[in-house]
Amino acid sequence: MRLYIADDTCSRAAQLVANELGIEHELVHFDVLGRSTSNGEDFMAVNPFAYVPVLRLDNADCDLVTETIVILSYLADQRPKACLTPRPGTLDRVKMDQYLAHVATEIAQKYIPLMRRLMTEEGVMFNKTKLLAAYQHFDDRLAAGGPYLFGKQFTVADAYVWGTLWNSRSGVDLEHLKNLAAWKARVDARPAAIKTLKEEADIVAQHKAQIEATQA
């Protein structure tokens, strides 16, 4: 498999799930601003909408899978014994899919206009209020049944929230959410998370060096 990522984006969640499951994958870094890739591919031919993650499969057609929650679920379904997501067709799976959709709409999509400085002052306050409400829900959930969002088992939901924790880049203060902070420390300490951050940093640095070499 080939996984297309960008620095500090929701593609980090897909990396983490792949590493948790021990699924071998080749990383390709996409420079969002310069539109180049670390392996020289034309990313617009990979995803014309120009966003990550994208997963290229090793099947005969080399199919491309997009959308974070779809990729997370697909990867988790390849290793069902790891229990990173419930079995398809069950009510538990519906609840997990519902939760992932909630993270996509109430977390990831609320951050993007804040990070890009695209909003009026009223819009900024609206999005920050929505984000704080979502994170308060996570904090309450962890207090009631932690150590992870779905109890004792680390799941794709934890990976997605971890991969979209962009509060420091967006001026959203989460210091008061102690359960969330403890949860983040637990996820950060997982070997797969440490591996994910190192691999991402390595390929970003490698691609940056490539770009600088072509500009010299």
Q: In short, what is this structure?
A:
The chain has helices spanning 11-21, 43-46, 68-78, 91-115, 121-145, 156-163, 167-170, 178-188, 191-215; strands spanning 2-5, 26-29, 54-56, 64-66. The protein is an alpha+beta fold and 216 residues long. The radius of gyration is 17 Å and the shape is globular.
Could you walk me through the main structural features you see in this protein, from its secondary elements to its overall organization?
The protein has 216 residues and is an alpha+beta fold. The mean pLDDT is 96. A 4-stranded mixed β-sheet has the order 2-1-3-4. Helix 1 (11-21) links the parallel strand 1 (2-5) and strand 2 (26-29). The radius of gyration is 17 Å and the shape is globular. The chain is 57% helix and 6% strand. It contains 9 helices and 4 strands; from the N terminus they run βαβαββααααααα.
Name the features.
216 residues; alpha+beta; four-stranded mixed beta sheet; 9 helices; 6% strand
The H-and-E topology, N to C, reads as EHEHEEHHHHHHH
User: Roughly how much helix do the residues carry, as a percent range?
Assistant: 55-70%
Content of β-strand: 5-15%
Please give the alpha-carbon distance between the first and last residues.
33 Å
Radius of gyration equals 17 Å
Which consecutive residue ranges, at least 5 long each, have pLDDT under 50? none
Average pLDDT number: 96
Count of DSSP H/I helices: 9
* Shape field: globular
Tell me about the largest β-sheet.
4 strands, mixed
What oligomeric state do the depicted chains represent?
Answer: single chain
The count of strands amounts to 4
Strand order of the largest sheet: 2-1-3-4
Find the structural class using helix and strand composition. Answer: alpha+beta
